[in-house]
Every structure is written in C-alpha cells, then in structure tokens.
Amino acid sequence: MSYSDLYTPGFKSRNRDHFAAIVRIALADGIISEEEQAFLNRTAINLEIEADEVTEIMKHIDKHPINPPSTKERRLERLYDLTRMVFADHIADEAEQDLMKRLLIGLGFPTDQVESTIDKAFTLIKNGSDQDDFVAAFN
Fold first, then answer.
1. In the chain, pLDDT over 90 holds for what percent of residues?
2. Nearest CA-CA partner of 25 in 99, 91, 132, 102
3. 10, 41, 104, 136: which one has the fewest Cβ atoms less than 10 Å from its Cβ?
4. Would you say 107 and 69 are in contact if contact means Cβ atoms under 8 Å apart?
C-alpha cells in the first residue's frame, strides 16, 4: 500500500486545492522563475501530488477553489507555504501581495487583520522562521 492510499479523497482534494493556491502566487507576476518552479516541485512531492496532477492543476488553475481549513493551525500552515512561495524568487512584487490578500480572506483570516498578518508573515519568512516558529508566532 502506498502512502497516498492512506488518505481520503477529501484530503487529496484539499492538498490539490492548496497546491493550486501556491501556483496562483507563482503565476501572479506572469512567469514562474526557476526558484519558484523548484519550490513548486518540492511542494508537490510533500503534498503527494503526482506529476500529471501538477500539469492538470497548472493548466486549469481556476477549477480549484481556495477550500479554507477548519482550524487556525492549518490556516497558518497554509499561510506559511503561500508566504514561502512569494519569497521563492526573493521578490515580493505587488501582484503577489494583492493575491495574498485575496487568498488570506478566502482562507478565513479576518479581513481587518489581513494587512498586518501579511506583514508579519513576510517578516517571519525573511528572518528564516521554520514552520513551527512561524505558526507559534501567530498563537
């Protein structure tokens, strides 16, 4: 039995939707840099997304909803991945920042705290926080 057989179809679907959100960030400026592609490749492996699924997601990005997690910790883990994607090419351009705002609202972050949440997330990633430190900083 493979690891992917251990997970429910809903779990796999949430992973694909999360991956699609990360791809949206990568595509926000119209191109995917080598660094962004490397990050996408690693993330696809970590999320148990097959190469053919990656291709399908990238072709039909709009078929994947944001699909907000039910817990604060899961939202913060997704925020961590999205923020790392923004900085994969060491540039947080305006298109990526605008998309982050929309994604955070879709993930269930309070609208009035989106700006400060993004600022804090960017600072934590710039300072080299790992996922555990990142999540802890918001609790």
1. 53
2. 99
3. 10
4. yes
Query: How far from 40 is each of 72, 126, 138, CA to CA, in Å?
Result: 24, 19, 25
Query: What is the spatial distance between Cα 133 and Cα 24, in angstroms, rounded to a whole number?
Result: 25
Q: What per-residue string of b and e applies to 78-96 under the rule 16 or more CB within 10 Å gives b?
A: bbbbbbbbbbbbeebeeeb
Task: Give the span between the Cα atoms of 129 and 61, in whole angstroms.
Answer: 29
What CA–CA distance (Å, rounded) separates 91 from 73?
A: 26
12/114 Cα distance (integer angstroms)? 27
CA distance 11 to 134: 23
Q: Tokens for 47, please give them.
A: 């999320």
Q: Which token pair is 12?
A: 């796999």
| pTM, 2 dp | 0.78
- Tokens at 137, concatenated: 């900083």
User: Nearest Cα to 30, choosing from 105, 89, 103, 118?
Assistant: 89
Q: How confident is the model at residue 8 (pLDDT cuts 50, 70, 90)?
A: low
